[in-house]
Amino acid sequence: MFLKKIEIQGFKSFADRIQIEFQPGINAIVGPNGSGKSNVTDAIRWVLGEQSVKSLRGSKLEDIIFAGSLKRKPLGMAEVTVVLDNEDHFLPLDFTEISITRRVFRSGESEFYLNKVPCRLKDIQELLMDTGIGKDGYSIISQGEIDEFLLSKPEERRLIFEETAGITKHKARKKESEKKLEETSMNISRLDDLINELE
Ligand code: ATP
């Protein structure tokens, strides 16, 4: 599995639709300061499920939508698509190519698509959980993150190892099941009350 292509439109400095194709192995994006290199990694982070605008170097949701320039009006929507090569079926879907799309409008409304089919953010997060490429997968290391790792507390460092070891998905499922169990036991006691009232 590897990142094959990214398409960006309306995201940060990219007003026009751009497409970058990658090859297996090392690829480099070079350009002058402020030309948008980090915006490309922000776009990848965002489409893979990042929810924190701060992590995308913004302060509010609108900061990720093209804000306009001297020659161009601001845009109303940002859209990013990544295409992943899945020939090796690393991702558990029966497709040799998987596209993930995310859109956001100035109104705050968001849309997500998996292979062009509308889906929930949760579907994308679950697909990528424990693969190392999700939002917390450490496949994108930004400036300062290594220092943060070295300075982090043992409990925080443990979370990083859990994600890389592939147990985050099971922890999330366990939490969900515990919540359902709790709801069910509340329903049972409510039913007991009703039965007692009827008897
Ligand atoms: P450096 O080499 O200095 O790290 P870079 O190539 O990584 O630079 P980026 O940080 O990706 O550059 O891009 C910064 C540019 O993106 C700035 O010119 C900034 O004005 C522009 N930019 C960021 N958000 C938006 C937005 N919402 N609308 C328009 N332009 C934006």
TrEMBL record:
It is found in: Cytoplasm. Belongs to the SMC family. It comes from the Bacteria. Signal peptide: none annotated. Homodimer. Required for chromosome condensation and partitioning. This is Chromosome partition protein Smc. Contains large globular domains required for ATP hydrolysis at each terminus and a third globular domain forming a flexible hinge near the middle of the molecule. These domains are separated by coiled-coil structures. ATP binds at P32, N33, G34, S35, G36, K37, S38, N39.
